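User: Show me a protein chain along with its predicted structure.
Assistant: Here is one chain, sequence first, then structure tokens.
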Amino acid sequence: MEFKLIKGDPLKLKSNVLVIGKFEEESISKTVKKVNEALKGTISQLIEEESYKSVIGKTLNVNTVGKTGSDRILLVGLGKKSEFSPNSLKKVGIAVAKKVKKFASKVIFNLDIEGSNLNSQNLIMGLILGTYEFNKYKSNNDDSSSTTDTKYNFIWSKLNQKDFDNSLQKATGIAEATCFTRDLVNEPPDTMTPTRLGELAKEIADENGLECEIFNNVDIRQKGMGGLYAVSKGSLEDPRFIHLTYKPKKKARKTVAIVGKGITFDSGGLCLKPADYMKTMKMDMGGSAVVLGVMKVISLLKPSVKVHALISASENMTGGGAYKPDDVVTALNGKTIEVVNTDAEGRIVLSDALSYAVNLGVEEIVDLATLTGACIVALGNYTAGVMGNNQLIINKILKAANTVGEKVWQLPMDEELRKDIDSDIADVKNVGSRYGGAITAAMFLENFVDDTPWAHIDIAGPTFIEKGGEFYPKGATGFGVQTILQYLLER
């Protein structure tokens, strides 16, 4: 893909597709009017005949029959002008890329929207994200149906080349980090093992000048990470604990830990999942993939905070050494956990990572985990739940998510539910009742953060969407990368 800022008459410039835009509540814009006149009213006629409403991302395809420099005109909806934001252009970019990626080698955008760093950045991000496909394991992944290497040109008012280049660099970095995260989650579990996660972490550290420390099974046991060690015992694959560190060049304003759940495959352990629920459980390392995606681009974006990235990586399997219901596990901070259900393993491996973050003396902790089906029941497939012990951090997460267009909703830490995870024989049970499961899971995690300000983001729903969506690919979405990056940049 190639992106350029250009000038010229959009009616005369040569391309496969000229993309023009229309808001819902407004009449056609200057460029749309000019194109409509060149096509003898064809666009306005089709808008009326097809009841075209200009909802965001909705397209109308018109053949120019040689009346403009472009072979086709693609009218794209910009949504309601009163609701327009730079993030709207990300959706526009996704919609256009999906429409043209199979055939167009050159596309020109002239949307009659004022150029700005954020507008151009989000549109380019959308184009990259909309082109994403995971076809690595298809034998015909290089055939004629594959994506065209498209050149995108932009006519922006009031945007100079320097600002465009800056936007392009940021957009490319963030979008590629999101696509990298998608790749990690889409990989089959026989290749995306805890060992492989550790190797990728080392590669990211070497590429970006980060500090890297990786603990193997022996290290994990010696350091007292009883939760991670217990969950890993049923697998032939050794666990890994991953610690990456980013340091800003100037004095850090804060020290933040981002923590990811890295269950590279979840069979449920001895509390075995039914077959239909085990399918897609390669995505249970989605939190760790977000953390690695963030660290892959963090040196480019240069937030002014020191960041510790922590991942507890393991499989949850049924081998002869597998941990069992009724076991009692001791986490890194010394607290004991009664195992009620081995399929609630993610919170157990996170107990050590959160405790480790506390020991580092960080000022804030944010964890991401595909933690509970209960969160999907509560919020659906497209929205993550956020909970925690500090409303300021939660508000910052919600603000960041809204800025980048990822859906996050706060769930309450309802004190009346806390008794559900009281244990008769240990400090805490790993599972409560079937009701409020996302909340009691967060309350379990709270046992391992002490008084450190902390937020937990349950990304079980939006991490992996089997059927895809209008603005999502099938499978892994990369949800969370952009929210966390925005959160770090605003700290």
